[in-house]
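User: Design a sequence. Structure:
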């Protein structure tokens, strides 16, 4: 990523933080550590004019979108975890010489 684009992203994150989005949510949105966001705010808060701070409605929409993505991710990870557990159980059954199958009475 070029320095110019990186600077634009930093300023966007600072504007969003100044508008009230929590640092933790911003850190997840931009895939950086929360302390990185705090550093950007310290470095750039004086570079942002009040009229550049987005309206709260825009932030609420972005936060809602982020929460929906996080919920989908958690659901997918739960399903993946269940499938991995099922696969592990099947692998263990395959390793056994005489797995405990129900005996036929025929």
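Assistant: Done.
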């Amino acid at each position: 990523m070029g320095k110019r684009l990186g600077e634009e992203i930093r300023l966007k994150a600072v504007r969003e933080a100044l508008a009230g989005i929590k640092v933790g949510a911003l850190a997840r949105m931009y895939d950086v550590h929360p302390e990185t966001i705090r550093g950007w705010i310290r470095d750039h808060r004086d570079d942002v004019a009040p009229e550049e701070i987005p309206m709260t409605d825009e932030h609420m929409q972005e936060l809602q979108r982020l929460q929906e993505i996080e919920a989908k991710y958690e659901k997918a990870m739960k399903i993946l975890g269940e499938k991995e557990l099922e696969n592990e159980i099947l692998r263990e059954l395959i390793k056994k010489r005489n797995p405990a199958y129900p005996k036929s009475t025929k």
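Residues 16 and 22 are 9 Å apart (CA to CA). The chain has four helices and no strands.
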